Amino acid sequence: MTIATTSTWVRRTESVLRPDPSRVVARLFLPGQEMAALGVSRSEAVIHRALALTDEEVDEELSAVYDSFSTRHRGLLSTWESHFSLLEHRVTDHEPPSLARRRLIGAYFTQEYSVEGAALFNPSMALHPDQTGLPIGSVRFVMTVRAVGEGHISSIELRTGTVSASGQITLDPPPTVAVLANARPTSYVRSAFENQLVDMWGDRTNSDFVLDALPEEFSRDELDVALQNLRDQRLTRGAARRTIDRFEWIAGCSYTVEFPPSSHVQERVLMPRGPSETQGMEDVRLIRLADADADGEADYVGTYTAYDGDRISTQMIRTRDFRTFTITRLSGPGSRNKGLALFPRKIAGRYVAMSRADRESNGVTTSDDLQHWDEPVLVQTPREPWEIVQLGNCGPPIETEAGWLVLTHGVGPMRRYGIGAILLDLDDPTVVLGCLAQPLLTPDDDERDGYVPNVVYSCGALLHGRHLVLPYGSSDSATRFAVVDLDPLLAELATSPAPPTTDEDHS
């Protein structure tokens, strides 16, 4: 029997977040590729047919489609106008269309996309920046969740709620609309580019030529000037085009977005934008970083897996207000593969993170700047029957008086997942103080079925008093919640010393 089936200190709650297919965003729709027989664009053909409509037909159709869709979106007319502007160059040999016709043409090139049509799972939880107006002993939380829509594309959503002094979870009413962010100018860091170029194993001659022309922090305009200088020397510099492409790719992976001030936190959806994440932004592990500024404000930082349909990479998202977000790509051996999870504060002057660089074991890696991560130190390898296939973390480490509490996940027979725990030394987290032999949670009967069966998985829990609030995804479909009493968990870890971990175990 597992701990979860025999213990009274691990309690599942009735709270469940299920995907809502009615939450949709309005995205650009391009109907097909070039017409093979005629050699003309489908888009151009659609535009010409729309231009042939009478004014009465335009007004009637625009009114009908707006009445049908406007309650499902914010700023739908502006979206249609924006989409028309992307196709406006195809309006040839015709007088400028009226505003109504522009909007209708934009509507023909717009589609609804259900961001959570397939699943809503793999949550992480942190203290909300606004803790005002709460009963004594209660806290407000903000939670990231992974939403999966058409084409198995993952996006990042937000949810909020409260936890009472007794550990009771109350979720805020779910949002009814989804709001997308707008791009904002961003700045770049030269050392981050340099480290990523090292990971790519390219010829350094051309990349150093570009980097040497840039200050430590630079703008897009400054990057354009440096790249143009390389283009001007392309005849005498081999592989200049490849170097330029690499700089453009790295720059595309680093961006800033901002949501409208009128939007609510829960309405905001971060959809893939950079070239490394075209097929998904997966499994954010969110922390409230302890390094506050002079005003007492702290950064919220999350690591996540970016997927481009072929390769995965680890990226980082930062915000202070959950309205403006900055995304960067990480580098170094410690950031390889999935599941980098940051510690909430520095240790011995360095940033620290859990790493699964080898795809199956838990390690600890460090960084000077949160961007480049060193070779990890192995701390836990698969040993128990329930974790033989692979191990990983289930979110950022949590500081307790006994040590760093790290929730883990293990994969066993029939690809069944379980959530376990280890305890690391506060001053030296490469030292394992305790390790549960059995998982805290395995899938209940009503959690076994879903998009990926037999999975329980979390990206981060919240410690409130002596309660560990544990949100978790069930079978890659929905989000559920459990509450774990901290004291018996620490007592169990104290009597479950970790087996020795050596390089031979890892080989």
Automatic annotation (TrEMBL):
Keywords: Glycosyltransferase, Hydrolase, Transferase. One of its GO terms (molecular function) is hydrolase activity. CDD domains: GH130 (cd18613). It comes from the Bacteria. InterPro entries: Glyco_hydro_beta-prop_sf, Mannoside_phosphorylase. SUPFAM superfamilies: Arabinanase/levansucrase/invertase (SSF75005). Belongs to the glycosyl hydrolase 130 family. This is Glycoside hydrolase family 130 protein.
